[in-house]
Amino acid sequence: MKKTLEFRAHDGEIEDIALGPDNKVVTAGRDFQCCVWQQDQLVTGLRWHENLPGIPDKAYRYQACRDSGTFLGLGTVTGSVAIHIAFSLQ
């Protein structure tokens, strides 16, 4: 096996990782962050408080992520689930 890329994505453990067909990587960490990467460059981070202003930054910790090719589903330790359109993360 050949390592093609390694980079620091989170402070602490990574809960889950998903690789997309467009060479993007989605990581969920124990640091309450979920990030989308292109190679080792951060494309975007998912933040609850931008869409739901009443929820503090650390109310949810992302637990797992899976890429179906069309949608990205995120499950948190609180039992909440968020679904995003994978090609635009809307």
UniProtKB/TrEMBL annotation:
GO terms for molecular function: guanyl-nucleotide exchange factor activity. GO terms for biological process: endoplasmic reticulum to Golgi vesicle-mediated transport; protein transport; regulation of COPII vesicle coating. InterPro entries: Sec12-like, WD40/YVTN_repeat-like_dom_sf, WD40_repeat_dom_sf. It is a single-pass membrane protein. Keywords: Endoplasmic reticulum, ER-Golgi transport, Membrane, Protein transport, Repeat, Transmembrane, Transmembrane helix, Transport, WD repeat. The keyword tRNA-binding does not apply. GO terms for cellular component: endoplasmic reticulum membrane. It is found in: Endoplasmic reticulum membrane. This is PREB protein. The lineage of its organism: Eukaryota, Metazoa, Chordata, Craniata, Vertebrata.
